[in-house]
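Regression test case RT-17, inverse folding.

Input:
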């Protein structure tokens, strides 16, 4: 199956100095990690984080990027800018971006195209709202988000795409999908990939679960057949908890 990747999404937390302090605390705890480890930090923390992770196994992600290379887009950051800084990853389509800042399936696809063209690895977030789960259309929603985002993405480029299934109702709420629910949707996403590409591509793609994964439930979630890692929110700000999750990804 896909390579295990544990990525922390710090959201709007930590100053540059605090980011360095957190990374320095995490580094020795994940030195023996058998999976890929990534920290997704605010834009202003990127230079400090990139310097702090040198000599370690930790990669650095931005939390968003614009679809244009440059232009009159006040407050935005381009994928080209991130690449110039030697950022390796970017998180796209997070539900908070969709809910609060107007991201749609179409704009996520445009951001995806720009990020891949710049040589970045994308952590693509997909997931349903509670009402959609209760209506029994989780599979359709997640399939549509995945298909639109991957429009025009070649099989070769797919190797630089990580998909994070994040049920919106489980983000920041303390609610978590059961291990079985998480695995079921991750398997559905893998089936979508098989349909768009082929079985080989579907087996190779990394599919994470995000949505209140923490030190207590990580082992059960990561033991599932179609869960290849996690996109971690609050627990990624706690070095010991984050390290426990990383250790569970074997």
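Golden output:
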């Amino acid at each position: 199956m896909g390579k295990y990747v544990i990525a922390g999404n710090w959201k709007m937390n930590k100053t540059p100095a605090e980011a360095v302090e957190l990374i320095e605390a995490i580094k020795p705890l994940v030195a023996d990690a058998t999976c890929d480890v990534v920290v997704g930090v605010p834009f202003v923390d990127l230079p400090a984080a990139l310097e702090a992770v040198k000599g370690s196994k930790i990669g650095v992600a931005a939390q968003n990027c614009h679809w244009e290379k440059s232009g009159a887009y006040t407050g935005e950051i381009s994928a080209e800018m991130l690449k110039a800084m030697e950022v390796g990853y970017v998180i796209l389509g997070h539900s908070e971006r969709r809910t609060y800042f107007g991201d749609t399936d179409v704009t996520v696809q445009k951001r995806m195209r720009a990020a891949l063209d710049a040589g970045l690895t994308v952590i693509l977030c997909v997931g349903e709202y509670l009402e959609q789960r209760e209506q029994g259309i989780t599979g359709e929603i997640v399939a549509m988000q995945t298909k639109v985002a991957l429009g025009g993405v070649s099989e070769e480029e797919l190797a630089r795409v990580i998909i994070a299934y994040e049920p919106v109702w489980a983000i920041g709420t303390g609610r978590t999908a059961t291990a079985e629910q998480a695995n079921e949707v991750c398997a559905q996403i893998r089936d979508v990939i098989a349909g768009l590409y082929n079985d080989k591509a579907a087996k190779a793609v990394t599919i994470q679960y995000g949505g209140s994964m923490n030190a207590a439930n990580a082992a059960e979630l990561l033991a599932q057949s179609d869960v290849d890692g996690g996109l971690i929110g609050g627990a990624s700000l706690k070095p010991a908890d984050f390290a426990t999750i990383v250790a569970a990804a074997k």
